[in-house]
Design a protein that fits this description.
Elements lengths: L12 H7 L1 E4 L3 E7 L7 E6 L7 H18 L7 E7 L8 H14 L4
Parallel strand pairs: 3-4
Antiparallel strand pairs: 1-2, 2-4
């Protein structure tokens, strides 16, 4: 489980989506905002109920994504706010593909 210190708060979403940059991949989109003044990196995981109807699948996806980020926290160069917005294609991906997709987005955005 990702600690609460590393989760984006509801108040910070407006800042993230206004000033954030976006990158897309097959399974997700990352919206990120880097700032050296932040103490810690914070992450959010968004799965639309319009995209994935079953709540247990949305929760499973978010648990897996949090686990991947928790493993990567020590490798982060610059503190940032980031939100992963998952699309329907993520249902076809297994855990290794999800991990590769998230890591690719983090590398492309130069967070890792």
């Amino acid at each position: 489980m990702l600690s609460k210190k590393n989760r984006v708060l509801k108040d910070d979403f407006s800042l993230l989506f206004k000033k954030g940059r976006r990158l897309n991949s097959k399974i997700a989109q990352i919206v990120y905002f880097k700032n050296k003044n932040f103490n810690k990196s914070k992450f959010a995981f968004i799965v639309s109920s319009k995209e994935i109807k079953k709540s247990f699948l949305r929760n499973k996806l978010k648990r897996r994504a949090r686990y991947v980020i928790k493993e990567c926290l020590k490798n982060i160069k610059i503190p940032c706010f980031a939100a992963f917005v998952f699309n329907k294609n993520v249902l076809r991906a297994d855990f290794l593909e999800l991990k590769k997709g998230i890591l690719n987005l983090l590398v492309k955005s130069e967070i890792i």
